[in-house]
Amino acid sequence: MEPQYVSFQKYLSNRDVHGNLEIPNWADHLPDGNEVMRVTDRHGTIYEFIASIRADGRRSLTRDWRGFALAKGLRTNELLRICWLGNGNEYAVQVGLQLHGPYIAWETL
């Protein structure tokens, strides 16, 4: 299924790659908190992240995020986006591969 809506995109920090993914406050189409987000990769493997809200009100993806980042070879400063598929809590993760002038080529992981 093709992504319907971009929930957010960001350049990955070292913490995002080696810990939990920090979610910007302005992100759209995400669970309200402590709910499962199902991400299906391009090979059909399903990962389940938790969209958690910390005591300070900041949001992050936890649970399988670190394993996903490791398995997909995500790197610090890489441009990543989370896309809602328009169906419940189903999402896709994309990474910006190349810059073509003002354009970015996105690959679904």
Automatic annotation (TrEMBL):
Keywords: DNA-binding, Nucleus, Transcription, Transcription regulation. It is found in: Nucleus. One of its GO terms (molecular function) is DNA binding. This is TF-B3 domain-containing protein. CDD domains: B3_DNA. It comes from the Eukaryota. The lineage of its organism: Eukaryota, Viridiplantae, Streptophyta, Embryophyta, Tracheophyta. GO terms for cellular component: nucleus.
